[in-house]
Amino acid sequence: MKISFSPEDEQFRKEVATWLKENLTGEFEQLRFRGGPGDEHMFPEERKKWEEHMAKAGWLCVGWPEEHGGRGLSINQQVIFNEEYARAGGPGHMGHIGEGLAGPTIIAFGTEEQKQRFLPGIANGTEYWCQGYSEPSAGSDLANVKTKAALNESTGQWEISGQKVWTSLAHESDWCFVIARTEPGSKGHKGLSFLLVPMDQPGIEVRPIEQLTGTSEFNEVFFDNAVTDASNIVGKPGDGWKIAMALLGFERGVSTLGQQMQFLNEMDEIIRIAKKNGAAEDPAIRQRIADAWVGLRIMRYNALRMLSGSQDGSLQKEAMIYKLHWATWHANLGKLAMDVLGPESELLDEGPYELTRLQSMYLFTRSDTIYGGSNEIQRNIIAERALEMPKEPRQAK
């Protein structure tokens, strides 16, 4: 991908920026810059309404093919849309897991019936999804999942039992894609399947997990003989690992550029405060701000390089460093924010005691190096898959 954009792309940028400026007003004004990581608990119903509003104007799922309800935008235009959305303060997407993960996976691997059933609800902003991957004993080690599913031939349904954890927005979701072990006695990445499971049923219990920020966008989800139709399996039984890995490739997609614009918004706020309270006069603080700016530019250029390859969910070597880079960078930005705030980082004006934007950001960044694959696991992936070094010795069980 070229770092510059064509005149046609820049005209598209103006179109996006104009629409956002004209529509993030009135009842939606309060949503600007809200609902991102660490703030996902804010305005859930209003953000759902915003996404329906976007869908009616054709601004949801913009990178999907037109035949599946999207705009079929080029990679360049998808980058532009995500950048302008974040620049304008567009709220965090309630449906980002459906739009960015479930939808592309169903498009790539689902049956025609599955595409007709599930894609319209995502594209029009009326059905929401969560991700059933991590478990108490299978976080970054996804191949260690214990959740089981068996096909009941008499009812024509999969019966699912187990537990998932760190399930973002499960309490707001209509569906969950679940990695479950469908082959008894199987181990590791073998014998797994990718199931689409309705959340509104007696066999599912969602329990919130309260975080340092005092919020609970993450959840535990318990499956006690929960069911889903036999047809709600993506691929064949046993294909779960292949599909799960492709989905993680989609996770490293174009939305990463929007994430970086959110980071830039946070950095701009830190710089504004540093200039106002005098912290910018400290040479050490100025150097850390400069380092943060350089790190963000490197992040952008690597993301553009990463997006230059296949869009089928396969991970290039460049993509394997992305999570480690941004997680470490963002955690350091959180520390910088607190040092710029000084004593105010530990103070709140008066009750009810709600965290400021930067306080919440700092606390949430403590989890950045853990969720989505811990830094330790990411380093192993880089060493083994990108650099083709010998695998880490495993202890015999």
What does this structure look like?
The chain is an alpha+beta fold and 397 residues long. It folds into three domains: 7-94, Butyryl-Coa Dehydrogenase, subunit A, domain 1 (Orthogonal Bundle); 129-238, Beta Barrel (Butyryl-CoA Dehydrogenase, subunit A, domain 2), CATH 2.40.110.10; 252-386, Up-down Bundle (Butyryl-CoA Dehydrogenase, subunit A, domain 3), CATH 1.20.140.10. The protein is built from eleven helices and eight strands. The strands form two sheets. The protein has a four-stranded mixed beta sheet. Helix 1 (7-23) packs parallel to helix 3, helix 4 runs antiparallel to helix 5 (112-123) and helix 4 (96-109) crosses helix 6. Residues 130-225 form the Acyl-CoA oxidase/dehydrogenase middle domain. Its cofactor is FAD. Residues 6-125 form the Acyl-CoA dehydrogenase/oxidase N-terminal domain.
